[in-house]
Amino acid sequence: METSIQPCALLLLVGADWQIDAASANVAMISGQRAADVIGQPLADLIGSKAIHSLRNRLSWLSKDESVVHDFGVEWGDVSLDVRASRERNQYLIEAELATEPRLPDGIGMVRSMSDRLSGDNPLKLADQAMRQLCALTGFDRLGLTNLKGETIVSAGRSEVKMPAEVDAKMTVPHVLADVDAEPVPIVGELSEAQLARASFSAPDQGTCERLSGSGIAAAITLPLRIDGKPVAAVHAYHGSPRRCPAERRSVAHLFAERLVARMARQSWKP
Questions:
Q1: Which of 69, 100, 85 has the alpha carbon at shortest distance from 199?
Q2: DSSP characters for 218-232?
Q3: pTM of the full predicted structure?
Q4: How much is the pLDDT for 164?
């Protein structure tokens, strides 16, 4: 099976020796080199000594294979990128998307402020208030909170945009689909299905694209939610035209949504 990623992000798989084991074909956006030519090359040669120092420091935060780290607005060459990275044994999976807005002044403060706006002790009313805030934060047409069966708990947004009849309730990592009609970018080098499954920008299969297009959806975000490490729900966002919510806003949305479900659980909501 050919592995591929969406064109709005590039993917790198890096070994413990900091050499590149796999790269998406659009790596040329930062280096001008073909993906086949960077395989086996030191990552520092691709992104620069300053960038590799910053990235290695950030990757040192990974405490276990399930952990993920982010860095926003980093410079790789002449390109500003938002980076997401995870570790599996002795390899690092790195995704970098073009930064589309400057750093937020205070992302953590935004989460606190949004949380403070939630009022009452009814779990469903709390969720409704939260989905409305997330619509404003992300700019997506419609958002919904679903349970582990994929059933919608609450939704908010434009009434003419409907939640799909089926959602992927098994997704365990955040996933972004910026344009359902975008041409996938192949990945060169050895990358397993399990590693690709941990990528936020993995290209969707044809069935998923047809299902979303049939519902009038061109862009989507899925944010799996956990309480104490246990999956409990997910936020799904949909838009009628191609759209990519900036990475730092997605992180704010994700943290806020996880605070939401923890608060709902304290008010007797059962996942």
A1: 85
A2: -EEEEEEEEETTEEE
A3: 0.93
A4: 80
pLDDT digits (tens, 9 = 90+) for 9-38: 999 999 989 999 999 999 998 988 999 999
Report the C-alpha gap between 271 and 268 in whole angstroms.
10
Burial class (CB in 10 A: 0-12, 13-18, 19+), 21: middle
What CATH fold (topology level) applies to the domain 4-98? Beta-Lactamase (3.30.450)
- Among residues 80, 88, 94, 90, which one has the least CA distance to residue 38? 94
The residues spanned by each domain of the chain are 4-98, 107-180+217-266
What does DSSP assign to residue 25?
G
Question: To which H or E segment does residue 68 belong?
Answer: strand 68-76
- Please give the Cα distance from 167 to 110 (Å, whole number): 28
**107-180+217-266: CATH number:** 3.30.450.40
The model's confidence at residue 243, banded by pLDDT at 50, 70 and 90, is very high
The per-residue DSSP string of 155-208 comes to EEE-TTSPPPS---TT--S-EEES-TTPPPEEEEE---HHHHTT-TTBPPPHHH
Closest CA to 156 of 137, 170, 175: 137
Residues 6+ apart with CB under 8 A from 180: 204, 209, 212, 213, 217, 218, 219, 220, 242
On whether the CB atoms of residues 101 and 246 are closer than 8 A, the answer is yes
Same fold: 4-98 with 107-180+217-266? yes
- Other beta carbons within 10 angstroms of residue 122's beta carbon come to 14
